[in-house]
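sorry for the late reply, my laptop died twice this morning and i had to redo everyting from scratch. anyway the thing you sent over, i finally got around to it. pasting the sequence first so we're on the same page, its 157 residues, then the predicted structure underneath. double check i copied it right bc i was rushing
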Amino acid sequence: METVGLGLYFEDLPVGKKFKTLARTIQDADICAFCNVIHMTEVLFTDMEFVKNESDIKGRLAPGALSYCFAEGLLAQSTMQKTGYAFLNMELNIENPAFAGDTIHVECEVVEARLSKSRPGRGLVRTRNRVVNQVGKTILIYTPLRMVKCRSDQASK
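ok and here's the structure:
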């Protein structure tokens, strides 16, 4: 019987494959905890009077880094368990702010997939990940390159 929730292998990720994750709602407590853990003392995230009276962005703003971290968590729980070996690089663009109360998910498209020349049994997969809120607005886009496991070492020979 297949175990649900284990990662996708290289062979499961051909160029053009599309999938999306489950969703997660960003809570006010998440923003507070994240800012405290990384000591992000920027007033946009820590001073609601500043936000109310002086900021162009109104509401309980979530740091872009938090939205990215939640996206990676959503992907890790569904696509990389026991098959993801390395996060190699990425480009990231923040398109719109996320706020407390927003529910986000990740829409992924495989844009590159090739076998590793130096590591047998491994493939390199780049996805275009679009983090989307509950009304379809894009929050951020990033393109990670990951090293993932092949089903067998024979895949790269």
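The chain is about 25% helix and 35% strand.
thats about all i looked at so far, will dig more tmrw
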